[in-house]
Amino acid sequence: xxxxxxxxxxxxxxxxxxxxxxxxxxxxxxxxxxxxxxxxxxxxxxxxxxxxxxxxxxxxxxxxxxxxxxxxxxxxxxxxxxxxxxxxxxxxxxxxxxxxxxxxxxxxxxxxxxxxxxxxxxxxxxxxxxxxxxxxxxxxxxxxxxxxxxxxxxxxxxxxx
Length: 161
What we know:
Blueprint: H1 2-8, H2 13-21, H3 24-27, H4 32-52, H5 60-76, H6 79-82, H7 84-91, H8 97-117, H9 120-139, H10 145-157
Helix pairs in contact: 1-2, 4-5, 5-8, 5-9, 8-9
């Protein structure tokens, strides 16, 4: 924290260079227990936002904005545990880059439908796509989960029984 104050309010030039040269772990000086508390708080706020969005379900535009914010808070809460840079590396790893891209695209699509197009039907469709993309993205962190779900869906939707 001292380095942050020193770099913001002046001081010696080499202190500024050292502060900028450090990785992100130097900026965030939270203890491991504080990181767990921050993770839990961010996750809880995200889940509360997603739950409270059901109250305004009759107004799909407000629902989409509140739900998407809660969704992003929940996904972003893990940055407190593993760090933002590590989370970005994991999100764009070769095994889940497509799931991440589809999820982020659905989030953007839901916000565009809600805030600019103002079409309730498109907003609901975008939110359904966002939920499906979040589930598929979450399954990418569980070994063989996407393959199991794919096989299950093929068996359930197979018409040749």
